[in-house]
Amino acid sequence: MFNVFIIGPAGSGKTALTNSLSMWLDQYEVDNIKVNLDPAVKSLPYDPEVDVRDYINIDKLMMEYGLGPNGAIIAATDLMTTFIEKIVEEIRDFKPGYVIIDTPGQMELFTFRAIGEYIIRSLSEERNAIIFVIDSILALKPSTLISLIFLSISTLFRFNLAQLNVLNKCDMLNEKQIKMIEEWVKSPEKLFLEIERREKGMKSRIMESLLNSINEYLSVVSIIPISAKTGQGLDNLYTLLQRIYVGGEDYVTL
Ligand code: GDP
User: Fold this and answer.
1) Ligand 1 nearest-atom number relative to CA 228
2) Edge-to-edge strands, sheet with 50-51
3) What is the widest separation between alpha-carbon atoms in the chain?
4) pLDDT per residue over 57-69, tens digit each?
């Protein structure tokens, strides 16, 4: 059993990737199931084998406790911790190979609240990995790319699991733009220079020391360009996932 948690900011394409990765695996007859951990999602492009919405009804929560949408999502996410054992049992009953886990839309719900920690702890004897999803349109702006990389680092710190970064929606970029982002990631000095050039006034001592501190980190980053829409790059993603599956969680590609 190999649990692959799909994490990333809202709208980055976690749900779309859960769907397309599963379809890609199906195509190659790699045994897999999909788990939806988003209690607030209204409709999904895939049919999850395990679904947290079977345990929690967000509309009912809103009505019963007079909560607004944000309060209800937070309450539902925290409530999920009481069902973790059942959810994990359901997952195990499938005796799956790959378990693709689609996490709540707002990444901070999973990353910073108890639910993420609980489920990862419950599955700790299995192989686990995280795919951190970056929206490639946002990555075109150097300062946003840096911010997203910091978010990815925060996920690594939080869970300490093998982690891959994907640059999703690259069907919306041209070759040159993809190369430019890859170049920035490979040579962070270029990324820093670009920030200085484009965003004058951004440079400050604190910025500089922060950027220096991720310089080394970025030099080992590999961000895999993919498209959850067209399936582009999923073969590369699978190769790296298999390395983690076979090689263990010490293998971290960021
Ligand atoms: P989530 O909030 O991270 O789960 O994001 P979703 O999977 O719901 O995707 C947000 C939006 O981006 C949806 O309209 C998707 O159809 C779109 N999207 C996701 N992945 C891709 C992609 O690879 N290419 C394109 N063009 N659109 C995508």
Assistant:
1) 23
2) 50-51, 32-36, 98-102, 2-7, 127-135, 162-168, 223-225
3) 56
4) 999 989 999 999 8
